[in-house]
Design goal:
756 residues; alpha+beta; Aldehyde Oxidoreductase, domain 3; Aldehyde Oxidoreductase, domain 4; 3 domains; seven-stranded mixed sheet; 17 helices; 29 strands; 24% strand
Length: 756
């Protein structure tokens, strides 16, 4: 990737502003927080997947020296009368009430000044349950007589989820349907029909900083310190739970040691809030690594895809059915189901489309947002399906894609016309970088080599709001106040660059203030690769507001608007000394049109399209089934890169994460119990698992509605990794895998059934 430095601030590969603090160990993290009189909480969790709570015996735990309190749901209800939370449905209790719905659900909490004492006491709690039948598979949950929730109360917080409704006698949290054209007629007239089913496994986010939150009670106020991607939402939800106005709740974050969607909405915040109010002391809960497995996961899925294809290799119709395993509590699963459902048919120009996407409750840990927001599960299926169709018809897979690719100016399946989506450029650069069409050594003996590609796209979340404040000081330095959370993606640096570009000052002179809801203005959340576009636009407008006020000050002082008098001199002339401030405010809310309830069609599904493709080269050992990915190429359309170096690391990071989900990661269950809830047994990629070569490229493109032509990038490299590797395995040894992960055992079994 080119890292050419431009004259301005946008386009500079500037080192991250917080880099020195992190490498020297001075960066702030909530895990390091210590408050006077603070109690530590340790959670006692359910060991059954579904059951009515008969009794909870906490007597022995309370007798442990040093234990301050042991709390169950009845205690929580002393300070929060209706202790249920959630961004889509208010379905999740702070501590289990009457019933548990998944293994690992919090049932009780022990509080002590020493966390080790609390942990020891938590082991002494005994709970008895009347066990109930379970449902764990997403497809079976559609018709199962086991109902996870009897009643659902929609949260009504977000505009795109206002249509949710509570349903009885079903495990459906949401079903999204899209209908365009006449698929029945098109299938009846098709020359070829292809149908395949693909599955993805349960995995987890594995941020190396586990969940941590602390609550500090004040005089009629509450301050929450939390490793959260959505401090504004946390404030709103805690205020709702307590029945307080928002100005009595303050939420502060620091740097996050990874998030990837795990640290969105409410996780530990409601629990520490209730405990702090009960004890009138600060309370902190920091989860151990194994507890993360029971807190939030990635949606397992089953995807049935069926395509009608003409003799000349044009896809004329496509039917998609996707079942999403949301676990015991909805979290943001309904949004995943709907937003990903928009694009389930893939980045292809198909006149007749029918999509059914279902969010389902099961007796598994809750599933929520995870880098890609459902899109990697879909691309895995439709890009594998694409290669399978091309091979069956004897058409080169690249040529087949080119014949069907959706390009700017054409309507996507929702009816929204594609704009500023460089799908063709991404495909062309991927083909060129991979050398497809040129000779390739497929290997000798037991080691076979192959190549494959996969491309995908995503509709960014909408509608959402971002607000920024820029404070210019009398010495011409400035501070930027926004609630975008820097969790390793480099957002602080990018936001500072955008502000600096407008103000024509060095980026290093802009200080970014960490999210603090008493100080920094509202931002919906740091998720879905929305920050560069949404908050970036808000920051740009705030900086433009400052510039306009500088010009107004010049006019007030009788100076020409184009005069180059230093800002500090303007302040001195205005106030007679180094004094005063200029404060600029900017907000951004993109246009959006809700999908029609019956057809799912909308003329404006998204403010921008994310496009990404991956190419993979692999070596397959035909004696063992072991697959080694030797080369991974990521090509993305992210508009104009604000910071090319950060873009490159984002692409590498996303691809490596998806590589783990593709090749090795899986939460293993037996008799309902999770077998591998530790990093000793749940293997994320290490250095030896990475390809020798990882190459990244941003195609030349512009997002006309983005700040300086930019849009998000964080998820794009996750889209095509899984199908690219599966397609490469097929190219190498002639076997097709349709279930993730692509383990050596799976490859070996497929080879045993027949391959090259």
């Amino acid at each position: 990737m080119s890292t050419t430095v431009k004259a301005g601030q946008v386009g500079r590969s500037l080192p991250r502003l917080e880099g020195r603090a992190k490498v020297t160990g001075r960066a702030d993290y909530i895990h390091n927080l210590r408050l006077p009189g603070m109690l530590h909480g340790k959670i006692f969790r359910s060991v059954v997947a579904h059951g009515c709570i008969r009794r909870i015996d906490v007597a022995a735990a309370r007798q442990v020296p040093g234990v301050h309190a042991v709390c169950v749901s009845d205690d929580i209800r002393r300070v929060i009368a209706n202790p249920y939370y959630g961004p889509a449905f208010h379905d999740q209790p702070i501590l289990a009430i009457d019933k548990v719905r998944h293994i690992g659900e919090p049932v009780a909490v022990v509080l002590a000044e020493d966390p080790h004492v609390a942990e020891e006491a938590a082991r002494l709690i005994v709970a008895e349950y009347d066990e109930l039948p379970t449902v764990t598979n997403e497809v079976e949950a559609m018709t199962s007589k086991v109902i996870v929730h009897d009643v659902l109360k929609p949260a009504g917080t977000f505009p795109d989820l206002k249509h949710l409704e509570g349903r009885k006698g079903t495990n459906l949290a949401l079903d999204f349907h899209l209908r365009r054209g006449d698929t029945k007629k098109a299938f009846a007239a098709a020359d070829h029909v292809f149908e395949h089913t693909f599955t993805t496994q349960p995995v987890m986010h594995t941020p190396l900083e586990p969940f941590v939150s602390a609550a500090e009670p004040g005089d009629g106020t509450l301050t929450i310190h939390t490793a959260s991607q959505s401090p504004s939402f946390v404030r709103i939800e805690i205020a709702r739970l307590l029945g307080w106005p928002e100005n009595r709740v303050r939420v502060k974050t620091a740097f996050l040691g990874g998030g990837f969607g795990a640290k969105l909405y409410i996780k530990l915040e409601a629990l520490v809030a209730a405990l702090a109010l009960l004890t009138r002391r600060p309370v902190k809960i920091a989860l151990a690594m194994d507890e993360q497995f029971f807190t939030i996961t990635k949606h397992p899925s089953t995807f049935r895809i069926k395509s009608a294809v003409s003799k000349d290799g044009r896809v004329t119709a496509r039917e998609c059915e996707v079942w999403w395993n949301g676990g015991a509590y909805a979290d943001i699963g309904p949004r995943v189901t709907q937003k990903s459902g928009f694009t389930a048919a893939g980045p292809y120009d198909i006149d007749n489309v029918a999509i059914d996407s279902y969010a389902l409750y099961t007796n598994r840990p809750p599933a929520g947002a995870l880098r890609g927001f459902g899109i990697p599960q879909l691309v895995w299926a439709y890009e594998s399906h694409t290669d399978m169709i091309a091979h069956a018809l004897g058409i080169d897979p690249v040529e087949f894609r080119r014949r069907n690719l959706l390009r700017d100016g054409r309507p996507q399946a929702t009816g929204t016309v594609m704009q500023d989506a460089a799908t063709g450029k991404v495909l062309d650069r991927l083909v060129e970088r991979m050398g497809l069409g040129r000779s390739f050594d497929h290997g000798q003996g037991t080691i076979k080599r192959g190549r494959g590609i996969g491309i995908g796209f995503k509709a960014s979340i909408a509608p959402t709001t971002s607000v920024a404040i820029l404070n210019l000081y009398a010495d011409s330095s400035c501070a930027l106040y926004c609630s975008t959370v820097d969790m390793g993606q480099g957002s602080d640096t990018v936001m500072a660059q955008i502000a600096a570009e407008v103000l024509d000052v060095p980026t290093e002179t802009v200080r970014v203030v960490h999210p603090d809801t008493d100080v920094t203005p509202y931002d919906m959340a740091t998720l879905g690769s929305r920050s560069t576009f949404h908050m970036g636009n808000a920051v740009k407008r705030a900086a433009e507001d400052v510039r306009a006020k500088i010009d107004a000050l010049k006019a007030e002082l009788g100076l020409p608007a184009g005069s180059n008098i230093p800002v500090a001199e303007l302040f001195r002339r205005k106030y007679g000394m180094q004094a005063g401030n200029i404060v600029g405010v900017g907000s951004f809310v993109p246009d959006y049109a809700s999908p029609d309830h019956d057809t799912g069609l909308t003329p404006n599904a998204t403010p921008f399209w994310m496009v990404g493709g991956t190419g993979a080269e692999v070596e397959v050992d035909t004696e063992t089934g072991h697959v080694r990915v030797t080369r991974l190429i990521n090509v993305a359309d992210l508009g104009t890169p604000i910071n090319p170096r950060i873009v490159e690391t984002q692409l590498s990071g996303g691809a490596i994460m998806q590589l783990g989900f593709t090749m090795q990661e899986r939460m293993e269950y037996a008799d309902g119990q999770l077998l591998n809830p530790t990093l000793a047994d749940y293997k994320i990629p290490g250095m030896r698992d990475l390809p020798t070569r990882i190459e990244n490229e941003a195609v030349a493109a512009t997002q006309t509605s983005g700040p300086f032509g930019a849009k998000g990038v964080g998820e794009t490299a996750t889209f095509g990794v899984s199908p690219a590797i599966a397609n490469a395995i097929d190219d190498a040894v002639g076997v097709r895998l349709t279930d993730l992960p692509l383990t050596p055992e799976a490859v070996y079994r497929a080879l045993a059934k027949g391959g090259r």
